[in-house]
Every structure is written in structure tokens, then in C-alpha cells.
Design brief:
The structure is a homotetramer of 199-residue chains. Chain A has 199 residues and is mostly helical. The first copy, chain A, has 9 helices and no strands. The interface between A and B is large, with 55 and 55 residues. Chain A binds a DNA duplex (21 and 21 nucleotides) through helix 3.
Chain lengths: 199, 199, 199, 199
Amino acid sequence: MAGDTREQIMDATFAALCERGYADLTMQSIADEFEKSKSLLHYHFDSKEDLLVSFLEHLLEEFVADVEDCPETDPAQRLLWMAELVATGHGDDWAEDFHTAMLELRAQAPYNEAIREQLVHNDAVIREEIADIVREGIEAGQFREVDPEVFAATFRSAIEGAQSHEVILGEAAPTDDALAGVERLLVRDLLAEGVDLKG
Amino acid sequence: MAGDTREQIMDATFAALCERGYADLTMQSIADEFEKSKSLLHYHFDSKEDLLVSFLEHLLEEFVADVEDCPETDPAQRLLWMAELVATGHGDDWAEDFHTAMLELRAQAPYNEAIREQLVHNDAVIREEIADIVREGIEAGQFREVDPEVFAATFRSAIEGAQSHEVILGEAAPTDDALAGVERLLVRDLLAEGVDLKG
Amino acid sequence: MAGDTREQIMDATFAALCERGYADLTMQSIADEFEKSKSLLHYHFDSKEDLLVSFLEHLLEEFVADVEDCPETDPAQRLLWMAELVATGHGDDWAEDFHTAMLELRAQAPYNEAIREQLVHNDAVIREEIADIVREGIEAGQFREVDPEVFAATFRSAIEGAQSHEVILGEAAPTDDALAGVERLLVRDLLAEGVDLKG
Amino acid sequence: MAGDTREQIMDATFAALCERGYADLTMQSIADEFEKSKSLLHYHFDSKEDLLVSFLEHLLEEFVADVEDCPETDPAQRLLWMAELVATGHGDDWAEDFHTAMLELRAQAPYNEAIREQLVHNDAVIREEIADIVREGIEAGQFREVDPEVFAATFRSAIEGAQSHEVILGEAAPTDDALAGVERLLVRDLLAEGVDLKG
DNA sequence: GATGAATGAGTTTTCATTCAT
DNA sequence: TATGAATGAAAACTCATTCAT
């Protein structure tokens, strides 16, 4: 029961954040998306900041779960799958809101140490995941020998940059071009001589 | 005189935005960085939103001026110069604050059409600049034949993603790796056979 | 409890309106007459306008209750009783303030549709009451045959004009003359031949 | 030149008052209807109150001039002419705004002694005018012997009440009935036996 | 006379938080 | 747990007035 209510609050926060943006997010706007009362938010969380930090934790857990849920086994395919997951959410409607919410929270990092810490941790996890895939590809002889950390940093920058542009620019975002470039310029170029992209 | 005051307001807005962040940016916090009165902000701008939209316009003008101020002539060097400008501001102190401010304002785009429009315009200008450099390099026989738009979208995503990470993650950001990857995986790979990176 | 608070707000509004006048009526001035906090006004009413419209509704309900509370049964006496109620409030102290408040609110009608609607409704109720008394008097053979609607419009104009003058001109208002004229020129003249004013 | 500017300010005040109402009348709204600057209002008038008192003076002068401009000579016709002037402005477009402005200013009398004094003076002039007409009619044997002051007070209340209703209730005002009643119940009833209304 | 810039006090409204139940 | 009522601080914005030119 207690956990159920907190879950509902997380959902309400998500909905409110997507609708109004971080700067206009109020406890009232969260309560409006919540079936119980505004006072109850304060019963479950010490303050607005406490609630938001918990919310970010919650969001990032979902994100890491998504990333780890990859159905592919081939390293190159796994990279492409991740690029698409991050940049477009595989076309999932929910993803657009999710990315919007993430963009908002990321922009708070410079002013909120708790948020920043969560994001640093998350970044490390994701880059490690990418680097692991690269190492695996190299070991399997499928990828040429690149520095896995350097590749991971650049790959992640590119796909997250594409995601941001998608959220920020909307229709005007060059997401298809950005993803095509990721495939042609980063992934395909990673392949060892004589290896082709599957799929 | 009037123009001078507006300039002072832009500066005060920048200072306040850097110090408090967009979500906590108030007319009062801007007035606190401004030597004249708070009412004067409303005399010169119809509303807070009007002021902020003008401010973004002002910021983007400075950014485009910076980008166009490149001292390099070699296409590959110009790309690398731009990557470093965007990701690190060439180490300029001012740049960190500038990038923080930009991150905040970008996060408002989904909720503010005027801001979104400015950013869409700016994005088009920057990608066109990149694509032009690529076209020039191809014509000069220095670059292999890639789709300039595809390259521009990916290159821009990568450098802006790196910038975001720098702002968001601070010390923990893998900016050096990301820039190294941009050089090795994107720019060097663009070179036509037999051509080497100068510098 | 909640209803009690709203009642207190209506009372505070009345007090503030009487003291400062509509043009100088502020939420703060209402709060000053109210034992609880200023924010609570906004908790119970969406806006100042919402509060004032509710307040007018409240005032008019009291007014209609007063009019319907007439102790007389004779039609001519009822008309005279109403004239005195409207013009002087039967000497009640409370009435002067009430009429001042009404004058202020009426002056807002051209600029506020919600206020205007309330006043149009109230006007219809009052004139119907007058016309009913006239019809009753005619049926009882006590009044000569006049058009009840025409009489009602003129009678109401005269007594409300007298009320306005009382409020506007204060001591200098010719209220006694105006009421004497209403009795001699309007009510007495309405009597059928051979009928005299009682009382 | 000086006088010309003051005249322009009076006109601008009139326009602003009609458009926004007294409660929302600001120096800026007056300046908006004025071809010169807002500061100039303060050059010509010590304060907003000073300006408004001058404005009322100005309005009442125009009103008295209108009343004295009656083309009729027959006493009964003069009364009817005045009733229509006050209640409807003889259908003049300008009159609607004029009456609206007057209603606003009258409502300020309880809070502004200078305004109240002007209105008291104006009231005395108008009632004296009516009483004079009545005296003249009695002397000429055209009216029966009524108390001229009592008639004046009632007549004036009735026509001013009708005017207020016209402004306040708009389309819903029973102005035709009220004027018909003034003619049938007040003026016609004033005629000496055997005298008929002309025209 | 005339103006644009500037100001400080004040206006309505918002909001995170607390309290009584 | 849960809530409606309540609060104080602060938000954006307004406005009569003043000032320098």
C-alpha cells in the first residue's frame, strides 16, 4: 500500500513534468495528476526537492532496465539497437515524454548535487555497457581494435545529442540523418576488415 | 543610452541565469545583478517571457559570431576547431557558464514556442555551416564523398552531446575521450585516401 | 466551517468596500478586515473578480430578501414601504453603506458582463414585484387601470434615482422631497376614484 | 496652445474613462488616448485626482450647457425634452459614453469630497431649472398647483434613475416604459384641468 | 513645454509547506 | 494515512510620480 502510493506519486510527477516542464512544475501540478490529495505528497516526501530526486532515481532505473533489455546478440546490432532506443525510443509514444523529462532533469544538474550524482552514476553505467559491447566485438574479431572508452564516449555523445535535438527541435530535428550517420560513420566503420553488418 | 540599458539587462540576465538556473530565475534575481531598478526590466520588456526570448536571441547571435570567427582555413581543421569550441569553449572561463545557460534554455523549448523557433533557426545555421565545410573539403579532394547533411547531423549531435555531458557531469564528464573520438572516428575517417590531418 | 469562512470573506469585502470604495478596493484591504490570511482569499476564490461577482450575488440576495420581507398587505402601503426601503433603508445605519456599495458595483456593469448579468436579473425581479403589487391593486379595485409594466419602470427609476442621490449628495440630497413626490405624484395618483391612502 | 493641450487631455480622459471605467482608469490609459506623452499629463495637472476633478468640472459644464439649450418654450414640452435628454441623450451616440462616464464619477462621490461638491452644485442647478419650469407653468395657468421643489426632486430622480438603468442594464433596460411613465404619470398629471399636452 | 527613462510602493497571484482533524 | 484549510514568503507585474534633458 505504502509503496503503491509512492509509485502513483512517481507516475503523477512524470505526467506533470512532461506537461509543464521542470521550471513550471509545482506540487499542485503533481497533485493534479494524482488521485489523492496534495498534502499527501508532503507526507511521503520531505520536500519538493526530495520528491524530485527520488523521481530521477526512479526514471534512471527504468532507463537502465530498458537498455539491458536488448534482444540482439550481435555486437554491431546491439550498438544500433541502443542508438535507436536512445534517439527515438523505438518509436514508442511513451519515449518522447520520457526523453523530455530526462532533458529537464539533466538541465538541473548544475544546481542540484543529488541530481548530478545520479546522472554521473547513470552515465558511467551506460558508457560501461557500450565499452563492454565494443570489447566483446573486438574479442570476437568482429570489430577492429579501437579504444573502447573513447568509442563509448563519442558514441554516447552522438546518440544523446540526437535525442536532445529530437526533443528540442521536434519536427525540425534531423534525427534520421543523425542515426544514418551513426550507422555509416561510427558502427560500420568499427567493423573489422571483411566483416559486414547483418540485419 | 536605451540600447546600453538593454545590454546591461542582457548581462544581468546571463549572470542571474548562471547563478540560479532557469527554474529559479526570477525578475528579482535579474534585478539583483542589475544596477538599476526592477521596474525598469518591465519598462524595457513586456514580460519575463519577452525578456527571456530576447535573451536567447542575444546568446545565439554571440554563438554564431563565435563559430564564424574560426581562424583555420583547412576544412578538417575547421571541423576540429568547431568541435572544441562547442565542447569546451576552448577552455574559456566564460564558456562554461554560457553552455550551462544554453542547456537550460534548450530544456524550455518543448514548452515555449518562441524559444523553440530560435533554436530551430540556430540549428539550421550551424548544420549548414558544417555541411558547407564538408562540401568544400570534398570539392578540394581532401574529403571522401559522404552525404554532407548526414555528416553534419551526426557531427553536430556528437559535439553537442559532449558539451551537454561536460555541463551536466562536470569533472566526471569524459570530454577528452569524446573529443578524441570525434577526431579519430569522425574527422580522420572523412579524409580521402592518401590525405593526412595537418597540424 | 468552510461556508463560515466564505461568509466571513463576504463580510470583510463589504467592510472594505464601504471604507475604500470599489476603485481602491484591494485584496489586501479585504484581508485587513478579515481575521485570517490574505492567501486564504485566493484559496476560496479563483480571482478578485470571482470574489467580487460572488459578493454582488450575496448582496442582491439580501436585498431581495429585504424587499420580500414587507409587513404591509395593502398595495399602496406596500409601494410606499418599498420606496422608503430603497431610498432610505428605513433609516437603518447599515443601509447607507449597503447603498454605497451597490452604487459602486452598478458602475462596474458596463465593464463586467458577470456583474451586469446579476444586475439585469435583479432588476427584473424587482420590477416584477412592483408590477405584481399594481396588478393586485387593480384587481382589488383599489388602483385605477394603468399599465403595470410602465408604472413599475417609472416607480423603480424614481426610487432608485432617489437612493443614488442620497448616496452621492449626502446631506444635500433632497430625499424627503423625492419621497414626498413619490407618494403624492405616483402612489396617490394611482388610487381609484373614491379610494384614500390608509395609514 | 496651453488651453488646447488641456482640452486634448480632457478628451483623452473621456475616451479612456468610457473604455475602461473609473476603477481601471490609469494615467497610462489616458496617455494612450492622447497624442503626446504621459509625462505631459503630470506637467499640466498636479496629480491624477487633480486631473479627474478638472475633468468632472468640464463634463458638468457640458451637461448644463446641453440642458439650457432646449428649443422648446412650452413648459410641459420642456420637461419632456429634458427627460429624454437625460434618459437617452436624444439618441445621440456620444450620449451613451457621456452617461457612462457620469455614472462612474458619481460613484466616486462618497470617497472624494471635491467630486461630491461638484455634483452637489450640479444637482442644485438642475433641480432649480426644473422647479423654474414648473413655476412658470403654474403662473401661466398650464400646470396645477404643486410644490415645485417636490416635483423637481421626484422628476429628477425618475429621469436620472432611468438614465442609470439605461447605462447599467443596456439592452435589458426598460427605458421606453420609464419614459412613457414619466409622460403619463408625472407630466400629464401636472396639467391643469382642461389643458392638453401639445406636440 | 515636452519626453523617455527610471523608480518605489503596491497589486494580484502563486506556492511550498504546515496544521488540525 | 489522508485531507481541506490555512499561511507567509515571494512571484510577476502595475502605476502614479519624478527626473534629466
